[in-house]
Amino acid sequence: MLKALCKQNEHRMEFVPEDEMLLTDREIRQLTGRKRFAAQCRALGRMGLPHDRDPDGRPLVLREVVMERLGGEKPPQEWEPDFSVIRG
């Protein structure tokens, strides 16, 4: 079953699958206001958003980081380690 996260765009509602780890190319263009990969990376750097690049130079941005930074809710973690079993 595919859950969707609804986000408000200026003119329409858009549904984004929760299981997408990275922002889409379109979302990065909307976020930065830039079309070229190098300009997008510079804009992300000025915004203080950590990112990496794929082999083609396309910026890779974790959705979770952007959601946290822009006031969205952090997606719940499905699994957490049980540290109580570790004895010192």
Q: Report the order of strands and helices.
A: EEHHEEH
Shape: elongated
Report the structural category. Answer: alpha+beta
Poorly predicted segments:
1-10
The average pLDDT score comes to 79
Strand percentage? 15-25%
User: What's the helical proportion of residues?
Assistant: 25-40%
Strand count, sense and closure of the main sheet?
Answer: 2 strands, antiparallel
Q: In order across it, which strands form the biggest sheet?
A: 1-2
Overall strand count: 4
Q: What is the terminal-to-terminal distance? A: 41 Å
* Radius of gyration using CA atoms only: 16 Å
Oligomeric state as shown: single chain
Number of helices: 3
Would you write up a description of this structure?
- The strands form two sheets. Strands 1-2 form a two-stranded antiparallel ribbon. A two-stranded antiparallel sheet has the order 3-4.
- The chain has helices at 25-32, 37-47, 63-69, and strands at residues 4-8, 13-17, 52-53, 59-60.
- It is an alpha+beta fold.
- A hairpin with a 5-residue loop joins strand 3 and strand 4.
- The model is unreliable at 1-10 (pLDDT under 50).
- The N and C termini lie far apart (41 Å).
- The longest helix has 11 residues, at 37-47.
Write the layout of secondary structure elements.
Blueprint: E1 4-8, E2 13-17, H1 25-32, H2 37-47, E3 52-53, E4 59-60, H3 63-69
Antiparallel strand pairs: 1-2, 3-4
For this entry, give a set of tags:
alpha+beta; single chain; two-stranded antiparallel sheet; disordered N terminus; elongated; 88 residues
